[in-house]
Amino acid sequence: MQRIKKVCVYCASSNKIESKYFEATETVARALVKNNTTVVYGGGANGLMGALADTVLEEKGRIIGIMPHFMKEVEFHHKDVNEFIFTADMHERKKQFMVGVDALITLPGGCGTFEELMEAITLKRLGIFTKPILILNLDGYYDDLLRMLDKAIEEGFLSEKHRPIWTVFTDPAKVIEAIMGSTPWSSDAINFAQV
């Protein structure tokens, strides 16, 4: 089985969400640490980002925060994460999220998480990013987004060939299995990027 050495996790910074999302995040974090996988994330101390970092640190795993300088200045960064990359802006942050990772994992989140996911899907469609993109659809959180992606295929905005760009999973404990079960992707995808 191929080793999953490093993954990026996209997730929420909100503390005003149900406990099930925190529990799922902690489960994902434990599974990644158990697999000896380095975690890259947005560097925050609150919400699911904070839960992710806290759990990785408690389990003695390795976590790297990536955050623009302006966020550090308003004390958004997690003080216990000692590996940080501070970027000039949000665009550079998103680029850094993808450097050297074996997969992207999308947990429930808000507009920032949506934007990161959609940019990753776009880059994979173009063959610029080729690693697995995972979506944790916990209790149907992403049902509407997945329906929108289905509609884009049905209406001809995406091709059926693009459906394997993302992999949906529902059990946070099976994150490694979901990564390993993803359809391989190639930089040749640029050849069928246009519908």
TrEMBL record:
<dbReference type="Pfam" id="PF03641">
    <property type="entry name" value="Lysine_decarbox"/>
</dbReference>
<dbReference type="GO" id="GO:0008714">
    <property type="term" value="F:AMP nucleosidase activity"/>
</dbReference>
<comment type="similarity">
    <text>Belongs to the LOG family.</text>
</comment>
<keyword id="KW-0203">Cytokinin biosynthesis</keyword>
<dbReference type="InterPro" id="IPR031100">
    <property type="entry name" value="LOG_fam"/>
</dbReference>
<protein>
    <recommendedName>
        <fullName>Cytokinin riboside 5'-monophosphate phosphoribohydrolase</fullName>
        <ecNumber>3.2.2.n1</ecNumber>
    </recommendedName>
</protein>
<dbReference type="GO" id="GO:0009691">
    <property type="term" value="P:cytokinin biosynthetic process"/>
</dbReference>
<keyword id="KW-0378">Hydrolase</keyword>
<dbReference type="GO" id="GO:0005829">
    <property type="term" value="C:cytosol"/>
</dbReference>
<dbReference type="InterPro" id="IPR005269">
    <property type="entry name" value="LOG"/>
</dbReference>
